[in-house]
Amino acid sequence: MPNIWEWPREWYAFVTARYYLRSRSQASVSPWTGRRNVYGPHSQLWVAEVTMNDQDAPVPFAIEAFLERLGGSAGLVRMSSPMQRSPQWNQETAGTIQPWSDGTFFTDGTGWLSGLLPPYVVVRSAETIGATSVVIGGDLPVSSQRVLRRGDLIEFRRNAVADETPSLHRIMVDANTNAYGDVRIEIRPPLRKGVAAGDMGVLDHPATLFRLADDDQGGAEYRAPIVGNIGFTLVENIL
Q1: Can you give the three-state secondary structure of 30-66, one letter per residue?
Q2: Is the dihedral of CA 219, 216, 17, 65 positive or negative?
Q3: Maximum alpha-carbon separation in the chain
């Protein structure tokens, strides 16, 4: 497997960002009626277009070095959506602080954080390549409405390992859990590789695998007194 570099979490400081699924379809136009016939989409791939906040030196130097290490579009980098690094459920609740079973808290007055969805879930049943829905579960609230919501992101990892197959998906409709805490989610793009029961679904910082859009990406623009601004475009590494 080629070297894959993880975008550092401390660098999720973007002033503008687009992170979206780009669809590719085939179209033809009738020469007699002008009717447009569209077939597809034949493919959907993630695109990230980002511009970072102004950074004082030496941070821009480190970011340039990271991008240069990729060797242009030859290298592979994993990046999450800057706007959706956790499910909407978690974004809309700060969680609740719970004490120990005897009603006491830690010595600093803090307690256990509860009410948030777990960072990982588990695939409940196998699905083949091309599937557009998957059953997941594991520490999700039982018999609850809209636990996972339209627009949430999930990444699948076979045997809990992030490999070179892009496996980031957007949830298409709100999903409710059953009495066991399991839920079937509808996803796009369709699975690019099958999943097995027990495989991991990532809800916290789900990511996909990108290449730089071309070899001209990555150079910072500097202003006195050595303040750097950098932007670049990534395209999903479709196998």
Answers
A1: CCCCCCEEEEEEEEEEEEEEEEECCEECCHHHHHHHH
A2: negative
A3: 80
Which pLDDT tens digit goes with each residue over 76-122?
Answer: 999 999 999 999 999 887 555 555 556 665 565 554 455 789 999 99
Cα–Cα distance, 206 to 167 (Å, whole number): 9
Instruction: Name the token pair of 8.
Output: 């550092």
Q: What percent helix, strand, coil does the chain show, rounded to 5? A: 10, 40, 50
Phi, psi of 60 (to 5 degrees): -60, -30
Of the candidates 80, 88, 91, the one whose C-alpha atom is nearest the C-alpha of residue 210 is 80
pTM: 0.84
The CATH topology of domain 1-28+38-83+207-239 is Phosphorylase Kinase; domain 1 (3.30.200)
